[in-house]
Amino acid sequence: MAVQTSFDPQAFRAALGTFTTGVTIITTQAEDGSPVGITANSFNSVSLNPPMVLWSLAKNARSLPVFSNGRHWNVHVLSTEQETLSGRFAKQGEDKFAEVELDTGISEAPLLQDCTARFQCRTAFQYEGGDHVIFVGEVLAFDHSDRAPLAFQSGQYALATRKPRSELRLATTPPPPECSYTEDLLGYLLGRGHYQMLHALRRLLKNQQLDEHAFFILSVLCIRDNLTIEELNTFVEYTGHVVSLASMRFLERQKLVAREVNGEQVRYVLTADGREASLQELALAKAVEEDISAKLGAGDAQALKVLLKRLIAASDPGLPDLWAAR
Amino acid sequence: MAVQTSFDPQAFRAALGTFTTGVTIITTQAEDGSPVGITANSFNSVSLNPPMVLWSLAKNARSLPVFSNGRHWNVHVLSTEQETLSGRFAKQGEDKFAEVELDTGISEAPLLQDCTARFQCRTAFQYEGGDHVIFVGEVLAFDHSDRAPLAFQSGQYALATRKPRSELRLATTPPPPECSYTEDLLGYLLGRGHYQMLHALRRLLKNQQLDEHAFFILSVLCIRDNLTIEELNTFVEYTGHVVSLASMRFLERQKLVAREVNGEQVRYVLTADGREASLQELALAKAVEEDISAKLGAGDAQALKVLLKRLIAASDPGLPDLWAAR
């Protein structure tokens, strides 16, 4: 950590950016009645009694005169689903409020919908802050919803995963310290998560007289039909379940796949029954996912997927794209 | 979203808390030379030129006179590894600086080590802010490291997962829209992540002449030795790999497990070779995890584990605690 005393603006910005923030849109009404809004992450709470919040605005911002002259403005803490709105209000030029539905607030300042929290404010103070003006507002009204809040860190949108107050343990007793195999092992957590998901499908698979291996083959064919055994294996073999002639014969006997022979090449396609079986599995997998997402909350469920995708990219042994155009 | 105009302080606090922040410790030196420090999340950037930051402090805080009279203070943006330090500086009473190593800064204000970013400031303004005082500081020096920053949301510490600018896709082509099986399916992501981890162990397992099923059995015995087949299955069966007499006979022939007969009950224990094989697998799993963690970054790797544990708890079919005391 070399201390920098010369002010490279980019380095300063990068250092400031490490402080995580939420994302807000702050709105007001211009004197001509037109709505004005900007994206800001310089928001913060100030006072509980009287209730006050603050944010700051660049002195060269086009909207500065409007906010300086206006008495009322609204702060909207954005949810993870409002990233597009955030992007729109961060830019200049276009009609930011086009097709944006508004609620009626206590002032004329536009009040956006579907936010995580909203604060309707009246300017209490405007303070000098270098190249910015600091607006301190008295909060006249507020509300908040259960929507997961959007975060921002080092120039990118982010999803914040709250940590439980005590170390999250799956079970009730701490593992013996001398045991180097702990449940904090990433491989264990991935395996347990995966098999618990599969476990939830097990009853359906049993009714379909299928095992995990058959389920994988049907899934691949459901996404990408008409494959040779060799091609199937490029998608399945890394799981350790190698697709063999016997695997396919079993599925043929079950009337879930059919073979198409072209000269010496044998390709497999799903039958109508096979597609139906696979879509039933998919529907159940989605239902299980919805149940888990509800328990985790939308923000955490989304964060988990982002992280799993990053893990998959980081450990990819070079698998072909199952969804690639052909 | 019912608008609240009456100010229930708890509801107001809850609404404010939805705005995600980083966590800072702000330090100064009292007139008697003693170090002073508090945890604050009311920090924010204000101005780039001149470089300025702000934070606010309750008027009834014991440290207010010191900060009001002092000219210099340092802001430390905390890393995910400084949660304990954050907790210590959030409380009153104890000697917060005991055994805390300090760097030499440009003022007498204490400069903490191992932070994500640090800003050494001189008070530029002190502003009225209801029950708080707003401190605006000119930044005289700053630095930042690669340490993942700690976040705070709704009263809990949090880990922020940055989202890639474009939707993160594993492969290069978007899936056909009519295909309902997408790679955004949680079950797919978990399975692919799990099997890619296993794939990285495959060469070792092959050298050991073991398959995934044998690997699971050895892992369980490494954590919890001396089990009957029935007991082994309480930990393994949910994976779909049922432990049978044949599974155990295979491991006996490989001289990795031994049986201990007590009347009619047969229990299995690892041999020295079995323990050695299992610990080799564990070492490789940890090496793979380290490689992935380095690619993901420490903060994201930690967030992934927190989320996987939450997923496991949310989808637990009631597995016994593998690490429970006996």
TrEMBL record, chains A, B:
Molecular functions (GO terms): FMN binding; riboflavin reductase (NADPH) activity
The organism's taxonomic lineage, starting at the top: Bacteria, Pseudomonadati, Pseudomonadota, Gammaproteobacteria, Pseudomonadales
Keyword Lyase appears in the UniProt entry: no
Domain Flavin reductase like: 16-159
Keyword Oxidoreductase: yes
InterPro entries named in the record: Flavin_Rdtase-like_dom, NADH-dep_flavin_reductase, Split_barrel_FMN-bd, WH-like_DNA-bd_sf, WH_DNA-bd_sf
Gene3D superfamilies named among the record's database cross-references: Electron Transport, Fmn-binding Protein, Chain A, Winged helix-like DNA-binding domain superfamily/Winged helix DNA-binding domain
Organism whose genome encodes this protein: Pseudomonas cavernae
Protein name, entry field: Flavin reductase
Keyword vocabulary terms for this entry: Oxidoreductase
One matching Pfam family: Flavin_Reduct
Family stated for the protein in its record: Belongs to the non-flavoprotein flavin reductase family.
PANTHER family reported for this sequence: FLAVIN REDUCTASE, FLAVIN-DEPENDENT MONOOXYGENASE, REDUCTASE SUBUNIT HSAB
